Amino acid sequence: MKRATIITGLDIGSSKVSAVAAEIMKDGGFTILSQITQGSKGISKGSIVSLNDAVASASAVLAKLHEKTSRGAGDIYVSISGETVKGAISTGMIPLSLRGREITRSDMDRCANVAGTIHLPFDREIIHRIVQRYSVDDKPWIKTPLGLYGSRLACEVYVITADANHMQNIYKCINNAGYDLKEIVFAGMADGAALLDKDDKGSRVLLLDMGASLTEVCVFLEGILSDLEIVPIGADNIKDNFRDSEQFAGLLSKISAKRQAFNVSSVILTGGAAFIDSLVEFIEEKLSCKVSVGVTKDIKGDISSIDSVRVTTAIGLVKYACENRAQKSREAKNIPQRISSAVVELFNNYF
Fold first, then answer.
1. pLDDT-derived band at 1, boundaries 50, 70, 90
2. Contact 299, 195 (CB under 8 A)
3. Which of 33, 241, 255, 301 could form a disulfide with 69 if both were Cys (CB 3.0 to 4.6 A apart)?
4. DSSP string spanning 47-91?
């Protein structure tokens, strides 16, 4: 009998390390088997500053996590944050046919790959390529061109990069702890997977993840991460007197400008700052828009509501992994159709 698939989400932060082990169900969902949160060492503002301490923190959490389940770690997805993480828009275009033809999923993937291929300094690596929108024959941007006819297909992609050494340190930390790392995921992507519900994915939302020493400001347009900024100010800087903090006032000014630039309708607060009394109301007053604490919904398994807030990013890593697995499964089932489309494309391009 085939054993169930286990996925582990590991969120390594400056003040705490959180991990979630989940079992993937046949329907593509997941059930949380166990979760652990404890203080971290060797991490500062999202970066590893002491390898031995970081390895000890990660290995201790992972060992306790899987003692609870008596199961292996499975695929491990680890978050990345910090000031080295940046985002930028890139565009690309591919020709289809002089006479025009129907646009296939293969065309969309090829165009996204072209748009996401950017020249980077030697010390940076790409974490994610996130498709924003498409354009057919220089017409206005659309969400999906699948099935439309056109001669040219253009694409806009949001490319997230990080310092290569920052990423290599994370890999080495997990490897030295005795585990293999499946993928590094930007923490903001994981938070979006965990916290955005159907209503949020149809609107413009600003996700504010305020940890101990960093704040991630992420804009999601119709559920798609479209802008990010990481500011070196966290809950530790404001928890004693956030009302009179000049640092916090400066952060709120940045958030307000971003909210107006993207016409954001609501703000979701997560991270350690979500536990600071009256902070939500204060932010709501300053930004003049709806602000709420992020809550993970429809989570099955052994976890309480308060614990789910503490391990939001780790849960998001599991959700991200599930969505990726589901997409790859759909693509595998469509291989015959993709081959057929490729043959048609070859014919259209040369005859």
1. very low
2. no
3. 33
4. EES-HHHHHHHHHHHHHHHHHHHTS---EEEEEE-STT-EEEEEE
Length of the chain counted residue by residue:
351
d(CA 48, CA 45): 9
* pLDDT score at 117: 86
Is residue 96 within 8 A of residue 152, CB to CB? The reply is yes
CB atoms within 10 A of CB 84: 19
Which of 150, 346, 195 has the alpha carbon at shortest distance from 142?
A: 150
As given in the structure block, the two tokens for residue 34 are 């166990």
Full set of structural domains in the chain with CATH = 86-161 (3.30.1490.110), 198-296 (3.30.420.40)
Rounded to two decimals, what is the model's pTM?
A: 0.90
Residue 318: what residue type?
Answer: V
Helix (H, G, I), strand (E, B) or coil at 291: strand
- State whether residue 39 is helix, strand or coil: strand
- Convert the pLDDT of each residue in 155-190 to its tens digit: 999 999 999 999 999 999 999 999 999 999 999 999
3-state secondary structure of 333: helix
Q: What is the DSSP string of 192-245?
A: HHHH--TTGGGSEEEEEEE-SS-EEEEEEETTEEEEEEEES--HHHHTT-GGG-
Tell me the HSE value of 13 on the side-chain side, using a 13 A CA sphere: 29
**Encoded tokens for 213:** 């020493």
Instruction: Say how far apart CA 46 and CA 162 lie, in whole Å.
Output: 12
Question: Looking at the predicted structure, is the pLDDT value of residue 342 above 60?
Answer: no
For strands 183-186 and 75-80, give the pairing.
parallel
Coil, helix or strand for 266?
Answer: strand
Distance CA 324, CA 137 (A): 30
